[in-house]
């Protein structure tokens, strides 16, 4: 996905704990609150159609906005309306951003001034992970899915390229919001994969769950 427009300085932000969007990945969302319906309507009027996904911060920063500093902006690429006025949308991850400050205004949803500096790589081509031991990773993943009694399409996982595999699992697996934030902030794909492996291994050892592997 190449950069086809200038990234705006101010974007709407959707604070949602545990929801992770990564560049070149897709996140389905269910929009039903009036303020976020207004956010979607306004986003669709802009050429960029961007919405910034950012997690609330349990430890608010000095500016007191209660948001993590780093989020990821997605372009609305699909949307459909249900009969009762809700929307099912898909955000395609464009680039991470750093929150500069929250912008006050008349919108019912939150907006932030953001900086894209340092995340130029996000708007480029797919990343590769040269140090990826795929066989060992899939074995670890199989143990994790068995322990959690989860089902998946293993054939699709095997066929997915490195970035799609790592990013999809980072988004989909049930980790704590702070762990999701660590996956988001990983500077490159190999670091994200290493973080993901650490989280999976931690869970298999018992982690903060009641499931302790024998």
TrEMBL record:
Recorded protein name is LON peptidase substrate-binding domain-containing protein
The superkingdom of the source organism is Bacteria
Organism source for this protein?
Answer: Seohaeicola saemankumensis
Q: Which residues form the Lon N-terminal domain?
A: 11-204
One of the Pfam families matching this protein, by short name:
LON_substr_bdg
Query: Domain GRIP: where?
Result: 127-186
InterPro entries from the entry? GRIP_dom, Lon_prtase_N, Lon_prtase_N_sf, PUA-like_sf
Where is the secretion signal located?
A: none
Stored SMART domains: LON
